[in-house]
Design brief:
The protein has about 150 residues and is α+β, with helices and mostly antiparallel strands. Helices cover about 50% and strands about 20% of the residues. Strand 1 and strand 2 form a beta hairpin. It comes from Rudanella paleaurantiibacter.
Length: about 150
């Protein structure tokens, strides 16, 4: 059951990251087309400003695309079927304050009426949970998180 749940969470994260990739690529293309379609006018400065703004927008979306592609690469390194007694990337960690899927920063995921939190191993809570075992505790923002299960 846990492997199936982790696979569903993994698939959700993969879809989340693919949507980010698609959106960034589409926005980048639109900004490029906008820059290309700027026509030279008698007010040369206006033309140059429009092209520069479109180029800045394209560059911003290129950065978002690169970030999303890095997230996808990080996600693809995980094995949803992997089991471990300690929290590692790819682990599902049930705590006294919620259940965390250590994968990528994708936020809250609701599956079958239960909320899970997809967190990056580099995030503060993700880094805190890494290496913990069942029964261990960790304090984050002055709140104690007791590890109840790891899969």
């Amino acid at each position: 059951m846990t492997t199936f749940l982790k696979a569903k969470l993994y698939d959700h994260c993969l879809a989340y990251v693919q949507e980010r990739i698609d959106n960034a690529a589409e926005a980048m293309q639109a900004a490029q087309e906008s820059a290309n379609s700027e026509t030279k006018s008698s007010a040369g400065d206006k033309y140059e400003t429009g092209r520069a703004m479109a180029q800045l927008e394209r560059d911003r979306h290129a950065q978002l695309l690169a970030e999303a592609q890095r997230m996808k690469a990080d996600l693809e390194k995980l094995d949803p079927a992997a089991e471990s007694a300690v929290a590692i990337p790819g682990s599902l960690v049930k705590t006294s304050r919620g259940t965390f899927y250590i994968s990528i920063s994708a936020g809250k995921i609701s599956l079958d009426g239960t909320d899970y939190f997809a967190v990056s191993p580099a995030s503060p809570i993700g880094a805190l949970l890494l290496g913990k075992r069942m029964g261990d505790s960790a304090t984050f923002n002055r709140m104690e998180y007791r590890i109840e299960a790891i899969s």
